[in-house]
Write a structure and sequence with these properties.
alpha+beta; about 90 residues; about 35% helix; elongated; two-stranded antiparallel sheet; single chain; about 40% strand
Length: about 90
């Protein structure tokens, strides 16, 4: 998930600020019969205050999320500067 704030700071300048939110998903399956079960999904934010020490995999997940969003923003800025319509991919 990504939260973005975009604003015009001057006539010829726009600032883009974003925060990437990654989550660790845990499934808790409850079986109540042969064909009756529920899958309860709990999502915990990947952040040291919520999980404790981040694993290498979690840190890589956060870095990848930031990289993906940065690439999308740069692609959109490049297309807008070239006069092409910006279409999400």
């Amino acid at each position: 998930m990504c939260v973005m704030v975009v604003g015009q700071s001057q006539d010829d300048e726009t600032q883009i600020i974003f925060k990437v939110l990654e989550y660790k998903t845990q499934h808790k399956v409850a079986v109540q019969g042969l064909l009756n079960f529920t899958d309860n999904v709990a999502s915990t934010p990947v952040h040291p205050t919520r999980i404790g020490k981040l694993t290498d995999k979690m840190e890589a997940q956060l870095k990848e999320g930031v990289s993906i969003i940065t690439e999308c923003i740069q692609r959109a800025i490049g297309q807008a500067a070239a006069g092409e319509p910006t279409v999400p991919k």
